[in-house]
Write a structure and sequence with these properties.
The chain is 31% helix and 25% strand. The chain is an alpha/beta fold. A hairpin with a 2-residue loop joins strand 21 and strand 22. Helix 10 packs across helix 11. Bound molecules: 5'-O-[(S)-[(2-aminobenzoyl)oxy](hydroxy)phosphoryl]adenosine.
Length: 512
Amino acid sequence: EVQYPDQLNCVTELLDTWVSQGRGDAPAIFSTGGMLTYKQLQERVDQVAHVLTADLGLVPGNRVLLRSPNNPMLAICWLAVGKAGLIAVPTMPLLREKELVEVIEKAQVGTALCDKAFAAELQSAQKRCPMLKQIMYFNDTPSTGLEERMSIWREPYDAVATAADDPALVAFTSGSTGKPKATIHFHRDIMAISDCFPRSIVQLSANDICIGTPPLAFTFGLGALLTFPLRVGGATVLLEKFTPESLLQAIKDYHATVTWSTPLFYRQMAGIASKQGLPTLQKSVSAGEALPVSTRTLWRDATGIEIIDGIGATEMLHIFIASAGAEVRPGATGKVIPGYEACIFDANGHVLPAGAIGRLGVKGPTGCRYLDDERQHAYVQNGWNLTGDVYLMDTDSYFWFQARADDIILTAGYNVAGPEVEEALLMYPAVAECAVIGAPDEVRGTIVKAFIVLRDGYVGDDAMKRTLQDFVKQSIAPYKYPRAIEFCSALPRAGTGKVQRYKLRQQEQGKV
Ligand code: 3UK
């Protein structure tokens, strides 16, 4: 489906082509600091590429760690790294010293570009990593770092003629099971994700202005808020901070047309959003976690927009199953997107027929390449990428998410998918968020336990517990109801927005 020449630099394709085609004056990036056109973006990217190669002495293949909230300088640095044939190692802003040390050692990082506001943890990590020789800072005032070095470079930078399968990115998984894993992606992978989902499903165009919450260090955000809009000649809005209220305001202020976020954020925005308040908004994409039907409904009722749910993975680089518009079936993630294939497998690797529940396998132009060999064989079997998700494919080829394999609860001889219980709980108006796990129980072995955050104004007492338990029993098979309920003020979440159910499980295991 997607074919690229053997020699390919993704930054040439995403950025330079627009300038050479005379579209240099079109807006590329909006931020609180103003707007950058494609031409202005290219000028800055070329300056940073000069600094990286001429000043810092980096050569193609060297890895460059990036640490910053979403802002134009981070985007510029990411593009400059690629243009110079270097390999970007973006890191989540929330990472602490210990995790940064792991990233530096695993990805063999010698150089870092870092937002000054996020310097502290990286500086302490550097003390433990002699391998990390140089850190250059940006967004400092007065600028003594990267911007000062950039300013002496005036001439264009010739993109390094990388091979299509030269690495462009080392992406770390969010570690929904604890230890992050590093995945490698090529220049052609960046092109492939930018040519598949955003074109065929979202139908992104040059008129679109993307906005949203995922960090650029999360590949969901990298595509959504950088490579996808650039690929079509559109624009992106990069925000360092946001709340549900401020993102709604920003959609309005920047005339954004497409939002990209996670289910919880749509749920929170739905409570305060209105159609009139969002005159330019046309499409909304959700990924990272299963989209509960109730959240889809809340957002549709508030804005008139049918969310495009999509499942992606760091290993696959981006989204591979999704549907939009009239094709949407609430509750299903969607159909496999053009360019990709998906199947359901049993535990022995045999393909299951429609209607059966099993392990999801996908293949397409992108796929998993771990830096770590051992787990490679677990993820990729017979050419199929096994994402660790349990799914059902129906006779119309829609894929219905059941749970991550780790989140299937075996209780009293039954298999209960945690997310199904969560869906049921979320239908109750008092429930703001929830997570369901299997908790050890002296009498029953394992029981279904729900951690619940209530909306403001509701009280988490025994009466509420009984109400919620009865509510679940009425909407799904009674044996699935949560025997234990714990109310809490927030759920543990990773920087990607994902609930860290493994933390809740560890907490429960520690109790027995
Ligand atoms: C889960 C979903 C149900 C699923 C990601 C879009 O989430 C991304 O990557 P990660 O490596 O996690 C992958 C896992 O997350 N998941 C993601 N989306 C959905 N489950 N419905 C969904 N819509 O378990 C998957 O295996 O952090 C998402 C684009 C790029 C990404 N990296």
